Amino acid sequence: MKKTIRTVTAVLLAVCLIAGSGAAASAAGFEGYEPLEHRPLTESDLQYKGWDDDKFDALLERLEAMGADTPDSEFLDVYQQILDEYDELYNQYVLADAAYYADVNDSMAAEASDEMFDKRTDAEDDFFLAMQRILHGPKGKLLQSQLDPLWIDWIETYVEESEELEELYKEENRLVQEYYSAIAEAEENASDDEEYYEMANELCGPIFVDLVQVRDQIAEWNGYDNYYEYAFDSYGRDYDPEDIEILSEIAKDQIVPLFNEIYDTWWNLPYPEHAEDAFYDEEEILALIYPYIVDIHPDLGEAFDYLLENKTYDIEYSTDKASTGYTDNLPAFHSAFIFNSPYDSYQDYSDLVHEFGHYNAAYHDPMPAIYMTAVLDVAEIHSQALELLITKYADQLYGEDAPFMTIDVVFRMLNSVLSGCMYDEFQKTVYENPDMTLEEINDLAEELSYAYGMDGSGSEAYDWVDVSHNFDMPCYYVSYATSAISALDIWRTSLEDWDGAVDRYMQVTALPSDAGYLEAVKTCGLMKFTDKKAVERLINEIWYYYDVNYRDFFDTKEKHEPKLPFPDLSGKVDKAKDVAQSVLKALLIVAAVVTVLVVAVIAILWKRHKGEEISNQTPPNPGYTEDPSGISSFYQELRGNTQSVTPEEEAAAGPAEDDFVSE
Known about the structure:
The structure is a single chain. Among the domains are: 25-226, no CATH class; 561-653, no CATH class. Helix content is 61%, strand content 3%. The chain contains 26 helices and five strands. The chain has a three-stranded mixed sheet, sandwiched between helices. A two-stranded antiparallel sheet has the order 1-2. Helix 16 runs antiparallel to helix 19. The longest helix is centred in the C-terminal third of the chain and has 36 residues, at 573-608. The two termini are 30 Å apart. The model is unreliable at 1-27, 555-577 and 605-663 (pLDDT under 50).
């Protein structure tokens, strides 16, 4: 996703420009995307050319000089030209970054990336300060009519970045570039994995220590106690850090056992050689997945067609590339650019599906770049839910490798939850204690790896260095966890109600890019990760899916097809509880009647055989005897000794508090 935290201020407000609020999504369902113009692109359009700020500055001066007698239409026309010019600046910023990430040892590309970073920061300063002055001038009311009230507050309180803060941002950017060069050096020179991780830690660890110090100063300048708090707010999250702590505890206690169980199956399934042999390069993967993306929903086809026709991507393998993948907007084209350093393995399928999820949302986003804010917890639903939905076509895409490729995606979604929570706790601890040594940081990483079930690599103390987000996008990673929960929610719905699940997914992709996470799940009828009982229920349902489809896989050798319908408990648990209570009342009445009859029969027999000894007489069972485990013998045999829960148990347990949010 995005490569940097936006640096114009301490907090990115989750607000939008009224004039262009996004595509159509509502509780009523997906109603289509807002039409936007997308012109054909040439190869030259996607080459970095640089950006001259003269035109931008001249337009700002012209806008500020307009008086009360200036026609409103002229003011709005110049204002739009300024927005368009900043869109072009952002395009060049993205293309400069892509050129640098394509070859991290290219010093000229690194300089261009730095230059565009500086120009973007300066342009944002100039724009918001000019808007601040205009709000107090003769055209203030006209400008206000174009803005959301929260943006007006933002502009009113905007403060120009000091030279000190600008230097801190530049130093932060320099250290991030130094990290990518260092990790490339380790990859090139290490002879095996063990040597690589030790070398990477030795080279990159001190860079991270320096980054923590720089970021601590950035947080202090912006009025925060520590950088974790600053970054948390910067991502526009509408939930609290305490919510993540609750999710983290659930992850440790309940997701780790499920993750380990699925990992054992994943590890023992045949390696997907057929899936890898099906493509020569990553462009062939795009061609392979295209018909299934379109089949999920035809409206996804427009963005995919544009992607293929205009080649707005760099996805080929190269040893010079940064080991990363992301998608960033090209707002001047109402499009985006996908950058990916492929593994040249089966995982490239999911990676490209993932990035296309981001691409599609950007393609339909009308927001001018200067006002563009991405709520990452929602943005990663665009990508991760699409990875899960396309598993419906696993047989067609992967043939005999379908079982592996399907469980691989589920496995990686659980990994997203665990690693997202783990790295959030890791960075929170480090940024709250910015004077930690590298040795202490390594010890912390190792401790958390075991706590979250992420151990087994043999380099638990060093693995964190290989995750570029820890350097490049601090405190981002937890968004993979929150969004994975929502993506799994969409997927579990799709197993019984495909059309309903796809509609919910399309609704999410059509929301304005600044929609908060809690707002998004409420609008689209998804469960909240902040609802503990709902998350626990989701975990149990994944256990059930695994038991039914994979538990006996190695015994039956059957083709990967669901043997039982996946239970959709949405909206049914209350009804089930009422039915259960009614049945219980009926059984109690029957039991009472039977008891009376038994007593009467005994009395009659006693009178008839007076004096005889009555032995071995036991009243019949007044109703039924419940298995202490609450699980039928059939299901016990099916599931063995696992932690999953049957639909009957779920119904008896009653509904989770606010299990599914819908209006």
